Amino acid sequence: MKVVKFGGSSLASGVQVKKVLDIVVSDPERRIVVVSAPGKRHSDDIKVTDLLIECAGQHLEYGEAVELENAIVGRYDNIAQDLHLPESVTEQIRTDLHELLKGDKSNPERYLDAVKASGEDNNAKLIAAYFQSQGLDARYVNPWEAGLIVSNEPGYVKVLPESYDALYRLREQSGIIVFPGFFGYSENREVITFSRSGSDITGSILANGTKADLYENFTDVDAVYSVNPNVVYNPTEIRELTYREMRELSYAGFSVFHDEALIPAFRAGIPVNIKNTNNPAAEGTRIVNRRDNKNGPVIGIAGDSGFCSIYVSKYLMNREIGFGRRLLQILEESGLSYEHVPSGIDDISIVLRQRQMDQDLEDKIVSRIYEELHADEVKIEHDLSLIMVVGEGMRHNVGTTAKASEALAKAKVNIEMINQGSSEVSMMFGVKNKDETKAIQALYEEFFSKATVLK
Amino acid sequence: MKVVKFGGSSLASGVQVKKVLDIVVSDPERRIVVVSAPGKRHSDDIKVTDLLIECAGQHLEYGEAVELENAIVGRYDNIAQDLHLPESVTEQIRTDLHELLKGDKSNPERYLDAVKASGEDNNAKLIAAYFQSQGLDARYVNPWEAGLIVSNEPGYVKVLPESYDALYRLREQSGIIVFPGFFGYSENREVITFSRSGSDITGSILANGTKADLYENFTDVDAVYSVNPNVVYNPTEIRELTYREMRELSYAGFSVFHDEALIPAFRAGIPVNIKNTNNPAAEGTRIVNRRDNKNGPVIGIAGDSGFCSIYVSKYLMNREIGFGRRLLQILEESGLSYEHVPSGIDDISIVLRQRQMDQDLEDKIVSRIYEELHADEVKIEHDLSLIMVVGEGMRHNVGTTAKASEALAKAKVNIEMINQGSSEVSMMFGVKNKDETKAIQALYEEFFSKATVLK
């Protein structure tokens, strides 16, 4: 049995939805279909989820948003018409959405979640109606009925353990289940959405709950590439990579598959297959527990910009028990999450995403560090990029660091930071933003030598 | 005006003390002489400080230690006889020491400090007597009289700011001052010793307080070497290095000069000159604020063993605000100080000195991390060495990392950890203990290419 998830671009138009149907019927194992909200039809298009967020915002502020409501319903109507569905399908969506938007606004966060989730929910109903119109034994299943109950923890939404048992019962249902992605319910039946692109997570939870043999994730690329195709021309496709490798690559900007979505599949040991709705014959990329290391130590190179570092130095810092902990506490009290903490003997740097800070907060933090920790020097450096060189077994490969740092030196890229030694599957280099592209190209050339680098 | 400090081996015998006199009189700027306790005369000898610690321990336990007392007084007597000093000098030391050992034991820590400090104190009196016997205008000055008042802070002893003003008045005294190293007094006149080898610290404090032009530190080597001479044959001598470089090298095992001793000199910008009592004509090594970088980016390579790392992994750790801080708090609550915290995305390692831990403490910490932080995996890796490659300006030198890691790869040394990016003057590699020597030799060969490596 397979769980199959389709992303927004795979469901953006009637033409796309027809491809989805062909994919589902071509393999009788594809029994649970998880759908996103309609995505972009072309690069200038607006995703339904974005329209919903805007619409909910206007309702909260002005109590109405007629044009946006029409635009949203219009997206569904276009698809419904392309698929020759009866008008009643669109009308039901219009009525339900309007009622929802007019509903209880006493808790704006819950209101917003419910409105956002309607994008997937209505799409699942529409797709189920289409499947039925084509003679399939298919039906929409709501997450509350299925027992997808979650708790809202800081940082991410967590599925309650008992949900998995409840979801197992979906196996017993005959026919094809069409399930909306992106959200679950709290124990008192409030809608809780996952983080953005969270339909991947729903698919993974269902795969875990139903003990599926495979979780297929259909998107609009043939494979996960070893490096961003906007940086390197025609890069190597990755046939197979491990959960850990995927997680490290997503962290640094690989957005093909949602990182939280890996957990449920990983815990149940269910392989994930990334495939292309527009080219279903392509093998795609498999995410697995273990893989052969025959292609050398490196499987992918990713880069992400927008980091800054807070440098703190104090003579004999090293001897002060609790210095690092107190420093991290100052950040925590300002609600800042940090990424890495490279350190010297008497100095320490904290690398964090700079979008979290503005000038005021920076000033406040710098002065707290001076005052409370009696630091000798505190300074903030902006515009850093982190580059991840990822591959299983890298840790035990003498010389990978040498190859990587030599490639960077040849490209005249100065290494601002290296963080290596905790993760067994990655090596991290900090460079200035302006050097990021050059650095990635140089590393790609070193580890995937036959490639052509974009100039 | 110069402050001159002589280490234990420079004062271990009459022959050595005569060299000290020659050095002092050869330069009229050498006005303040700081002395250690008599050190080793040969490699199997026992330092007076070690005899004193043993003796105090026996007195605390049994109320007497006749043989040890005799051994200690015997060391002074040997020197006094070599120098043809009157017997009264030794007898005074015998009486004072006995009285001290029989004294107040209600606070064993203070008792031990007072006994240890007597090694330097009696030696200063002896040296002053010898200088006078040779017709010099010299006198012993006690730290309490001079106003060297300290507070006993966790981690290290701190000089009270007003001490520096008091010490400035030493400039006004005529003749040569002989000052005992290693200790100061609390505000209520209790003896507080500095950490081991703390006479270096006294010299630095006096240099700062008296605004000396130079702080000369006489020991038994011609210079600070760029690498441990037991690991590499006949290594390059360092002519000049910065305070920061010296600090980083001492951290990883360079014991020529005490790291705490750098602070007062550094704060006052007073250069430190490490020289050899047995070869005073040699230039020695100068520790300064700034130096030329003409010798390439690396000035020294040091290595230190006995580290372990606690590895913690948890899926999506990265999203949990406060995870790192709580982890460090667990260590702090067990009184552990850590050195470095390399991190991946969902894993973090804490590198610390393993002598701080035994099996019980390790088990306790591992289970606290599992229970309180819900980690997926916790493991402790033992027997790591840290290798520091040190040099000013290294940070802005494209390619230093590449050279270093290539040298290690060629020597078949696997890099367990790299920590680079906070300190501007060093790069740190973690390797297994067994690879430490091989790693240091390979790095030395790379950065100081003409050298002969010991096989």
UniProtKB/TrEMBL annotation, chains A, B:
Q: What is its EC number?
A: 2.7.2.4
Keyword vocabulary terms for this entry: Amino-acid biosynthesis, ATP-binding, Diaminopimelate biosynthesis, Kinase, Lysine biosynthesis, Nucleotide-binding, Transferase
List, in alphabetical order, the Gene Ontology terms for molecular function in this entry. aspartate kinase activity; ATP binding
Biological role: Catalyzes the phosphorylation of the beta-carboxyl group of aspartic acid with ATP to yield 4-phospho-L-aspartate, which is involved in the branched biosynthetic pathway leading to the biosynthesis of amino acids threonine, isoleucine and methionine.
Cellular component terms (Gene Ontology): cytosol
Q: Which SUPFAM superfamilies does the record associate with it? A: ACT-like, Carbamate kinase-like
Entry's Gene Ontology BP terms: diaminopimelate biosynthetic process; homoserine biosynthetic process; lysine biosynthetic process via diaminopimelate; threonine biosynthetic process
Q: Where does substrate bind?
A: T49, E120
Query: What's one Pfam family the UniProt record gives for this protein?
Result: ACT_9
Q: Which family does it belong to?
A: Belongs to the aspartokinase family.
Q: Which reaction equation describes what this protein catalyses? A: L-aspartate + ATP = 4-phospho-L-aspartate + ADP
Q: Where does ATP bind?
A: K5, F6, G7, G8, T219, D220, Y225
InterPro entries from the UniProt entry: AceGlu_kinase-like_sf, ACT-like_dom_sf, ACT_Aspartokinase, ACT_dom, AKIII_YclM_N, Asp/Glu/Uridylate_kinase, Asp_kin_monofn, Asp_kinase
Q: In which pathway does it act?
A: Amino-acid biosynthesis; L-lysine biosynthesis via DAP pathway; (S)-tetrahydrodipicolinate from L-aspartate: step 1/4; Amino-acid biosynthesis; L-threonine biosynthesis; L-threonine from L-aspartate: step 1/5; Amino-acid biosynthesis; L-methionine biosynthesis via de novo pathway; L-homoserine from L-aspartate: step 1/3
Report the protein name in the record.
Aspartokinase
- Domain ACT spans what residues? 389-455
